[in-house]
UniProtKB/TrEMBL annotation:
Localisation: Endoplasmic reticulum membrane; Golgi apparatus, cis-Golgi network membrane
Main subcellular location of this protein, as a coarse class: endoplasmic reticulum
UniProt entry tagged with the keyword Hydrolase: no
SUPFAM superfamilies given in the database record: SNARE fusion complex (SSF58038)
Regions crossing the membrane: 96-115
Domain (T-SNARE coiled-coil homology) ranges: 26-88
Protein known as: BET1 homolog
Signal sequence region: none
Topological type in the membrane: Single-pass type IV membrane protein
Amino acid sequence: MRRAGLGDGAAPGSYGNYGYASSGYNACEEENDRLTESLRSKVDAIKSLSIEIGHEVRNQNKLLSEMDSQFDSTTGFLGKTMGRLKILSRGSQTKLLCYMMLFSLFVFFVIYWIIKLR
């Protein structure tokens, strides 16, 4: 069935030889391709950033566990030292106790000074 005035060779939606519909389609397709590439590069950047964050979290967890074990050993050491000081304080050796306390304060300030210079 043929309609009058439409012509034979024009496909529906092509608007004849002018190509308006196909050029609009190509422009949209190019825009979609450009946006897709932009999105792909952003996704790749986020992926690499999340991988780096994962590595950093693992390293920080390792450091925290090492610090925890060091604090535990230091706590045990200080507990033993305080126990020894209590034993010394029970006796009449107050002069020796004062010397030990002064030496401990001296060591503490030397360590503090060394850390502060870093």
